[in-house]
Amino acid sequence: FRFVLSREEFVDLFLDDLELPDLAKRKLAETESEGIQRAGYATSGSPANISISRTVSRALARRVALRRPRKDEIEALEAELAACEDDTRRRELLALLEALKAKAKRIPFIDPIDIRYRRFETVPKPVAQAV
């Protein structure tokens, strides 16, 4: 009669009587397990995997590119407005201040397009081998 054995079945049958430790059996069987490894960043994911540093740097780059007014610019303009005595200059400063505040409201601090998540992939990992 004939029968067929896979490599793993042959190794199991061959090593059963030898009473080798599990590490030696695994070394001879050459099995692989799955492990998790970092694989860059993604635009969607779990809130637990959010990459704060990458998100904040992308938000800062977007705010700089869109020329969002900084808080100190608005405060300096308000101080100049408080010290101004000329009515025409005061109206100009007030209009400029309102425009800056409106622009600051239009450009959010962190937008959903800025958010980045750490991404993980499962990769085959060799089993520990006895030395």
In short:
The protein has helices spanning 7-16, 22-29, 52-65, 71-83, 87-106; strands spanning 32-42, 117-126. With 131 residues, it is an alpha+beta fold.
Q: Estimate the mean pLDDT confidence.
A: 85
Radius of gyration: 32 Å
Strand order of the largest sheet: 1-2
* Global outline: rod-shaped
The major sheet is characterized as:
2 strands, antiparallel
Portion in helices:
40-55%
Q: What structural category characterises the helix and strand content? A: alpha+beta
Proportion of residues in extended strands: 15-25%
Count of discrete alpha- or pi-helical segments spanning 4 or more residues: 5
Strand tally: 2
How far apart the termini lie comes to: 40 Å
Low-confidence stretches: none
Protein name: YeaH/YhbH family protein
Pfam families: DUF444
Organism: Burkholderia cenocepacia
Fold topology:
Blueprint (H helix, E strand, L loop, with lengths): L6 H10 L5 H8 L2 E11 L9 H14 L5 H13 L3 H20 L10 E10 L5
Antiparallel strand pairs: 1-2
Structural notes for this entry:
The protein is an alpha+beta fold and 131 residues long. Helix content is 50%, strand content 16%. The protein has helices spanning 7-16, 22-29, 52-65, 71-83, 87-106, and strands at 32-42, 117-126. A two-stranded antiparallel sheet has the order 1-2. The chain is rod-shaped and about 110 Å long. The mean pLDDT is 85.
